[in-house]
Recover the amino acids of this structure.
């Protein structure tokens, strides 16, 4: 009987440890979600920063255009204008590729977040199922324990009666 109790205690401790691991994993997943959110915020700040860089580039282009109008040599003006256009084109291409990379990263992170949410939901369902199973097992073990105690009590009563009958004989 003590072995049964010990086994039940070990089973309960095992399930409790499993439940704690599940809770820890949920906490870790929540921490990762917060990190992803912070990373997304940082990316939005970078996009805003890049937008201001484009504005600065546009302002520089306007200044360069004014300087070109003041220049005396028409050939020199054309060369400067071509240089500015090439530079602007490269900056725009660089900016576009950076935006595409960020969009891809955000998409990947969103998908990863979705997968982690699914994982959390699955873990929570499993934990709920395990909790229900554990309750059912505890109820069964409680019933068995009550039956065992009843049988033990009956055994002692019969043994006492037998002893009493032997004494009377």
């Amino acid at each position: 009987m003590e072995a049964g109790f010990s086994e039940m205690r070990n089973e309960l401790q095992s399930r409790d440890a499993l439940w704690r691991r599940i809770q820890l994993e949920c906490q870790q997943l929540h921490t990762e979600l917060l990190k992803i959110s912070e990373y997304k915020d940082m990316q939005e700040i970078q996009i805003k920063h890049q937008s201001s860089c484009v504005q600065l580039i546009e302002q520089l282009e306007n200044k360069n255009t004014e300087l070109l109008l003041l220049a005396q040599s028409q050939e020199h003006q054309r060369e400067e204008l071509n240089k500015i256009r090439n530079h602007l084109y490269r900056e725009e291409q660089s900016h576009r590729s950076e935006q595409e990379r960020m969009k891809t990263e955000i998409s990947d992170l969103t998908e990863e977040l979705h997968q982690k949410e699914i994982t959390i939901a699955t873990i929570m369902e499993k934990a709920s199922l395990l909790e229900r199973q554990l309750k059912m097992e505890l109820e069964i073990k409680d019933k068995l324990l009550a039956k065992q105690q009843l049988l033990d009590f009956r055994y002692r009563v019969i043994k006492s009666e037998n002893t009493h009958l032997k004494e009377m004989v």
Remarks:
- The chain has two helices and no strands.
